[in-house]
Amino acid sequence: MAEKQVLVTGACGEIGQALVQSLAKRGGYRIFSADLAPLPDAIASLVDEHFQGDLVIKAKYFYDYDFDVIFHLAASLSSTAEKSPEVAHRINVDGTMLLLSMAAYRSEKYEKEVKFLFPSTIAVYGFPSLKEKTAAGQIKENEWNNPQTMYGCTKLHCEKLGLYYSSFMGQRHLDPNPPTMLDFRAIRFPGLISAFTVPNGGTSDYGPEMLHAAAQFKPYVCFVREDTKISFMAMQDAVKSLLMLMDAPHENLTYPVYNIAAFSLTAREFSEWSLKSFPEAKITFEPNIQRQGIVDSWPEDLDDSMARKEWGWKPDYDVERFFNEYFLPEIRKRYE
Ligand code: SER
């Protein structure tokens, strides 16, 4: 069978690196990548061609390629985006729109559905106060869609753009013989944790930062309160979810934007796990008002029953397995 051509934007980021490795391991893909940075050694040999530079400028080159699948991961994350909201808007929205319109054009012109996988986020949700957040518990996709960050606003907007380009452009859904449209699918990710890479620019970063610091016996000053609670997930499960959603039959998907969840932890529980595994760890808490405000507006937990029902989603790692079978063994090897 011919190899499928896959484009991964943001390939040098945490999800990007793990995804490229998983695609290469699966086999059957010709992998193209794009990022502001050059490819790191961990994935350089797995990629056929890398486009380095600003995606808003590079996107025009992609019209010459015949991608079957696009994983558009490139984005400015929540804490970075709050420092320069207009720059983040350009990266997150303009970049996404250029890729969506290119994929829609190619799908229609060559009558071949291009699959477009988009990582959305818990940042699309927004609670006005902690009281509502705590009372809400697990929330569904259509609840509390009131983002309080530029990151959340741009991701929610791009979900809608994906739906527009894949279903409604020119009111084509009303056409008795609609043209082939791109096939847009999105996952709202919780905070992700990898033992192999360290995050940068997000606000859920306190979880993985604390664990990586503890494993290196470096003191860590946590920028949120001890009782701060949001949803987290192992990086392998995040990559697994993207591949599962890519493979899911189109007819099973009722609304292509899905929550997924694995476990919810407070920052205190993160520090307890860190101290249990690395008793010399030094963790203190000094909340930063802006970053605290961001995570306080995010849900404690997510209802992922739609993903479970429509494409068989189930995480491999609950909190115990995450620490005992993945994170701790891998991190010990890494910093030994
Ligand atoms: N991890 C992201 C961030 O903190 C949230 O999806 O920005």
Structural features, described:
The protein has 336 residues and is an alpha/beta fold. The protein has a domain at 75-194 and 232-262 and 299-316: 3-Layer(aba) Sandwich (Rossmann fold), CATH 3.40.50.720. It contains 13 helices and 14 strands. The chain is globular and about 65 Å long. The chain binds serine (SER). The site of serine has 11 residues, from loops.
Q: Any idea of the CATH topology of the domain at 75-194 and 232-262 and 299-316?
A: Rossmann fold
Would you identify the CATH architecture of the domain at 75-194 and 232-262 and 299-316?
Answer: 3-Layer(aba) Sandwich
What ligands are attached or bound here? Answer: serine
Q: Within the largest sheet, what's the order of strands?
A: 3-2-1-4-5-7-11
Note the beta-strand portion. Answer: 15-25%
Distance between the termini: 43 Å
What Rg do the Cα atoms give?
20 Å
CATH first level of the domain at 75-194 and 232-262 and 299-316: Alpha Beta
Describe this structure in a few short sentences:
Helices cover 43% and strands 18% of the residues. The protein has helices spanning 14-26, 41-44, 55-58, 78-83, 85-110, 130-136, 150-168, 206-215, 235-247, 267-277, 289-296, 305-311, 319-335; strands at 4-9, 29-35, 49-52, 69-72, 115-121, 138-139, 183-189, 191-193, 220-222, 229-234, 257-259, 263-266, 283-285, 301-302. The structure holds serine (SER).
